[in-house]
Amino acid sequence: MCDNDQLVKLRRALEIAKANKNQLFVSNIERDIAALEAGKESPIIKEYLTPEERAKLD
């Protein structure tokens, strides 16, 4: 999945998290969005997926 696709999905997830007042999700999603917008790897994907799993996303 390309970064733009991830950003679209993350922004939608952020709207839902804010509507549900789930601050933990809001913080994590905002962190991910900021990283992707800066051209960096998603912190959530980097932390939770193995290199092999990350390679399958490309």
What does it look like?
It is a single chain. This protein has 58 residues and is an all-alpha fold. It has one domain (3-57). 78% of the residues lie in helices and 0% in strands. The protein contains four helices and no strands. The protein has helices at residues 3-19, 23-37, 43-48, 51-57. Helix 1 (3-19) packs antiparallel against helix 2. The longest helix has 17 residues, at 3-19. It is globular and about 35 Å long. The N and C termini lie close together (6 Å). The relative contact order is 0.13.
Globally, the shape reads: globular
Overall mean confidence score, pLDDT = 90
What is the CA-atom radius of gyration, in angstroms?
12 Å
Provide a count of the helices: 4
Classify the helix fraction into a percent range: over 70%
User: What is the total domain count?
Assistant: 1
Terminal residue distance: 6 Å
Layout of helices and strands:
Blueprint: H1 3-19, H2 23-37, H3 43-48, H4 51-57
Helix pairs in contact: 1-2
Quick recap of the structure?
This protein is mostly helical.
Keywords:
58 residues; mainly alpha; 4 helices; globular
